[in-house]
Amino acid sequence: MLADIKKVLKDLFIFKEPEKIEKFILKEKKSETRQYNESGNFDDGKAEEENKDEPKSDKEETGGEVTKKESSGPKKRGIKSQFAPITKIGDNKDKEEEKCQCDNKEDNGDEGKTSKDVSTMTKVSKKLSDNIAYLKYRYSIPDSADVVIREFNITVKGKTIPTFIIFIDGMINTDILDMAILQPLMLLSNMEIKDSENDIENIVKNRLLPHNQIKILREFSEIIDDVNFGGCGIFVDGIDVAFTADIKGWKSRGVDRPNTEMVIRGPQEGFIESLRTNTGLIRKILKDASLIVENVTVGKRSKTPCSLLYVKDIVNDSLVEEVKRRLNGINIDYLIDSGELEQLLEDNSFLAVPQIIATERPDRVAAMLTEGKVAILVQGSPFALVMPATHIDLFHSSEDSYIRFPYANLLRIIRLCAVAMSLLLPGFYIAITNYHHEMIPTDLLFAIEASRERVPFPSLVEILIMEFAFEFIREAGIRIPGPLGSTLGIIGGLILGQAAVAANIVSPIMIIIVAVTGIGSFAIPNFSLGYAYRILRFVYIFLGAVAGFFGITAGLFLQGIWLTSAKSFGVPFMSPLGPVTKGAAIDQVLRAPIWKQEKRPDYLNVKKSEKQSHISRQWLEDDKKRK
Amino acid sequence: MSDVRFGKQEGIFMIVNAMSIQLFLGLPRRMCEAGGPAGWMIPLYTSLITLVLFFLVSKLYSPFESKDILDIAHFAGGSILRVVVGIIFIIEYIFALSILLRIFGEDIKIFALNQSPLSFVIIFFIIVMVIASYVGIEGILRLNIIILPVVAFALLLVLFGNINYMEISNLFPIFGTGPYEIFVKELSRISIYSALSGVYFIAPFIGKHKDFKKVGYWSLIIICLLFTLGTMLYILVVPYPTSTEYFIPFLHLARYVSYGRFFQRIESVFILMWTLSAFSYLSGGLFLLLYMIKKTFRLEYYRPLAIPIAIILYSICFIPSSLMYSVTIEGEILRRYAWIVTFAVPIAVLIFARLVKRKKEGGKCNEKV
């Protein structure tokens, strides 16, 4: 015990040589490097043209492989980008593997053996019985009752060939299985095939499987992965490949309104748990061939499919590579939800505020993709992750874009005030009542004094009692299902508050403070940010009680330092306020009219910074000309 | 730290914040003590002199782009000169920071935390300074950009809130205590711009020489306006000789602000803004001090020094026996003689470095090192 305490103290106070960690820095645009400026050739137009002329991605330059790159010029930061060489993560192409040309003896090592030890098999055997045995071993059949193996025969060119399929009941669409797999194989195979092809594999693939997504695989690991994710494996005796068909058909809810980000004006669709449905929702909005949806698998056991989305000719390539690097570097067994993935990807787990935006809205994701950000969708989670995020982004709502800019600005100001109140109001109240009485107008002072006269507790204890009570009611309201939950919350709050005032435990003004604080926290658009400020509020209450406005100021300064030094995927977290970047007044703090939204955020260093032309309303120019 | 970069805007904000903190302390009162109703002239003409001096410095600095004064001293006179120059700046910064720490602490104690011991108040500053300097200069500078407009807003609030109390007659007699007192005896008040020495150490972070010049010039121009208008506002509202009695002038001006029965006595909000500026100044000052020590003694890391140096500052700040003594030291020593460290020493080092460069390169003294 003593040794542990000593170790903790040693770790805290004795300086350790810092690890040589090279933090990721978002690659700059060529036009913004110092060398470029010093040579006096800086020109916005030329920079844009040069960007267009440059190869679009590392992949095109190097033929598919990502190479290491250093930033150039005197503004060189002295950091080599040490992104791990990234192999192709996965693509949506059908894996058409060539039939093995090698000698049969080499790759059919299992064949011909008298021993039936199938546990060491890795590739499909030509003997159907070996394949069945291996799959029974892997899936522990008959212990796993939902894994179904259906054996039957097919007739090909007059020959009867044993065949079986394997699938997981409950994950597949049985109608598609029957109509597109079993029926063609069992019935249509009897029909005369007017083709000179004699190879069984080609006949089965080209003639007997009229399904839109068929893969030809040799490795059992890949076949099992597909079967585990709603596919059907088809094995034919005599060939050393298997076919997998994508016939997913598990039950999921339909596309519904988002739960956490409801808007009055704007689309009312939200993501669901199905990955392909979610990517479809985004593709429906962004009908752009440059929108890339890369497949990623996270989790050694769960093999959770994820999708990485970005717009190829806008996004900064170094950002995409960094996201891929982090995804590839996740070594976990299971990934269930995007919340877990968010915690595994974020820069700093101890920062109070989230550094990745989690949203349920496809339109919001699409809008952020067009700005040059990267999104990740996770199978089984209705929340998409978008990065990088800045602190200002967490205050934005998608509705800001859909309503006229004066209303949007009003809402943003209200939100900012709500956030400030939810964070600081209790602390300010404590500070004013304990240290800065002179600020309170005399009439209000009398009212406060009268209301607090009979309360036996100091204001700090009062506010802590009420804050905790409010948090308990809020948490209990979530756990209780249905309409009872919200009703209980309201009644609990009313009765608890009223009873507490009647019992002189707290003063009425404290109820108002806590209620306004709670309402302010609900006005925060970002769910995680609301939690962050709920925690920080207690810190400010404590600081206000200890040192008044001075303590609160110290807390604000430290929080400011904490946030300004933080980064989200190479982007300073307080951009564009600190550091100041272009476009702060266009759509960051306040929103300019939509026809002024000409540039993408400067801090993302995107390939194409212009997103609309200077004259985006040509009809107005035409009107002027007419006059 | 070699990979830290920031732009000229951040540099300007840093220097402006470092110098403007005096406005919230006793600068207007000291100007009134020196010049009477014409105290506003002192910051004006001293800033012109400072601009000329900085022009000289920037001209001498041109071949030493992206180098701080210690690098230049090393180039000129080897390790010995580097250490000597470094120690001079270190002593000046320790002196300034500890005195101002004491004054800030005492002011907070007087106006907000009367019952709290001084050590408790100052420890807040120390904790914030250590954490901020540990995090690094980037965070401090970025926060400066956010804080300064807020502080400027507070100043404007005080300005507009006191419009009703301004009297033009308070500016007369126009030359106050006399031209000799103002223009000759107070010439050493160019020391009120001593925080400009920070620009010599942030030169490597700024990079280009033209940005370095812009940081210096714009900082001085903004501060000149700030000091002149601030002092003038104070004199317009509080006539001489009453203006020499208020300890923290701007706090008293904030007290005068009232709109009806509801908005009165809002100086506590002013304390909030002013304290933010103080935190920013002290944190930046401690960082520069650590940076100076690191470069002077060629240390590899600066972070381990944060806590020990902060403890040293904390100890030194209790040496003056009272607040009055601290204010006297600040006004009569720091704000009179700091120009030697801010201008005389760098100019001497730069001239020496240019001569050495000329000797080494045989006449090509304008080429960059």
Structure description:
The complex is a heterodimer of chains A (about 625) and B (about 375). Chain A is α+β, with helices and mostly antiparallel strands. Chain A has four domains: about 1-60, no CATH class; about 115-245, no CATH class; about 275-390, no CATH class; about 410-570, no CATH class. Chain A has 22 helices and twelve strands. Chain A has helices spanning about 1-15, 35-40, 45-55, 60, 105, 130-140, 175-185, 200-210, 220-230, 275-285, 315-330, 340-345, 360-370, 400, 405-435, 440-450, 460-480, 480-500, 510-520, 525-565, 585, 620-625, and strands spanning about 145-155, 160-170, 215, 230-235, 240-245, 290-300, 305-310, 355-360, 375-380, 385, 565-570, 570. In chain A, the strands form three sheets. A five-stranded antiparallel beta sheet of chain A has the order 1-2-4-5-3, sandwiched between helices. Chain A has a five-stranded antiparallel beta sheet with strand order 6-7-9-10-8, sandwiched between helices. In chain A, strands 11-12 form a two-stranded antiparallel sheet. In chain A, α15 (about 405-435) packs antiparallel against α19 (about 510-520) and α17 (about 460-480) packs antiparallel against α18. Chain B has about 375 residues and is mainly alpha-helical. Chain B has one domain: Up-down Bundle (Amino acid/polyamine transporter I), CATH 1.20.1740.10. Helix content of chain B is about 70%, strand content about 0%. Chain B has helices at about 10-20, 25-35, 40-60, 70-110, 120-135, 135-160, 180-185, 200-205, 210-235, 250-255, 265-295, 305-315, 325-360, and strands spanning about 260, 265. A two-stranded antiparallel sheet of chain B has the order 1-2. In chain B, β1 and β2 (about 265) form a beta hairpin. In chain B, α2 crosses α9 and α4 packs antiparallel against α11 (about 265-295). The longest helix of chain B is centred in the N-terminal third of the chain and has 43 residues, at about 70-110. The model of chain B has no long low-confidence stretch (mean pLDDT about 90). The interface of A and B includes residues 436, 443, 552 and 564 of A.
